[in-house]
């Protein structure tokens, strides 16, 4: 029998390398097999393209928590920041607004969301697993956990510098306005404000809201463009090794600054080699195990591994693939700061380029070129 030259979870590749004999974090190394033993095609200097929410500070509050991945954690991601938040049943992310627009994907459970726009048009909806919402920058809103166990969701902001610690909160605002001014503004007696909180609530517990219909406030009528969208209700595009649902402003019109794709890849399958001509890609891994190589030109490429709760980034134009290296379905979100989704397929480019020209570059037999998948890429309405 041929002697085994590659040991598991040791930086040994064929005849190269040696086992680790100093201090090590074995669990973390096991999660990053392609960093520990990079493919021989990896080369050159590359910024970090991975952050795990497990490495983020957890802000623990009454009835919930929040943790974030911003430019402070992942400096390459200047366009997008992400927040992972949990609210128990009844717990509220207090009424607030912020500089960035907010896009969200519900990971588990249900929430009641509310907003009022600049014209006094109102929005209230109940959001469940696989549903989205989008609040334009500056529009005040709230999120509250529903029965039975509240919810957990991913928030995406169209500014990498955003932080959940720097939002405009209702209670914080009122606590910093003289009481006589509040009385004058609301045209009531000053004593009406005797009990307002002195400090922000941020996340706090209150009773679970009643039925949505009972909670509705008419205001100046409903917002002209809904702030929510049922992503899982979209018919998926089926490919050889998985599915994709693309949600950009063509199907979710209010989402003017965020385009998204929910990708599912079966074991052994792969998201083909491609790049994005319009924006950086920000990824959130929901389930499964992946590896991704990113090619940055100038003979530079690096391979990263991802699993549930991890964030990945691919700067605009850089070539990449995402491979399912586990034995369960890989599910992740691709997010772009753009009003439309776009990717350029390497296969499609080569398949639709004159044969002789491609052959002259790659020295590939014409019969092989004929086999390159020519699947017409789905055109999103
Ligand atoms: Mn918000
Ligand atoms: Mn991509």
Task: Based on the model shown, name its key terms.
8 helices; binds manganese (II) ion; 36% strand; 3 domains; elongated; seven-stranded antiparallel β-sheet; disordered N terminus; Jelly Rolls
In short:
The protein has helices at 26-31, 33-36, 170-175, 179-186, 212-215, 346-351, 355-362, 366-371; strands at 12-13, 16-17, 50-52, 59-61, 64-69, 81-87, 92-97, 102-116, 122-128, 131-135, 141-145, 151-157, 168-169, 203-204, 228-230, 237-239, 242-247, 259-265, 270-275, 281-287, 289-295, 301-307, 310-314, 319-324, 330-336, 344-345.
Protein described:
With 381 residues, this protein is mostly beta strands. Helices cover 13% and strands 36% of the residues. The chain has helices at 26-31, 33-36, 170-175, 179-186, 212-215, 346-351, 355-362, 366-371; strands at 12-13, 16-17, 50-52, 59-61, 64-69, 81-87, 92-97, 102-116, 122-128, 131-135, 141-145, 151-157, 168-169, 203-204, 228-230, 237-239, 242-247, 259-265, 270-275, 281-287, 289-295, 301-307, 310-314, 319-324, 330-336, 344-345. Strands 4, 5, 6, 7, 8, 9, 10, 11, 12, 13, 14 and 15 form a twelve-stranded antiparallel β-sheet that branches. It has a seven-stranded antiparallel β-sheet with strand order 3-23-20-25-18-17-16, with no helix packed on it. A five-stranded antiparallel β-sheet has the order 22-21-24-19-26. A hairpin with a 2-residue loop joins strand 16 (237-239) and strand 17 (242-247). The longest helix has 8 residues, at 179-186. The chain is elongated, with a radius of gyration of 24 Å. Bound molecules: manganese (II) ion (2 copies). The site of one manganese (II) ion has 7 residues, from loops.
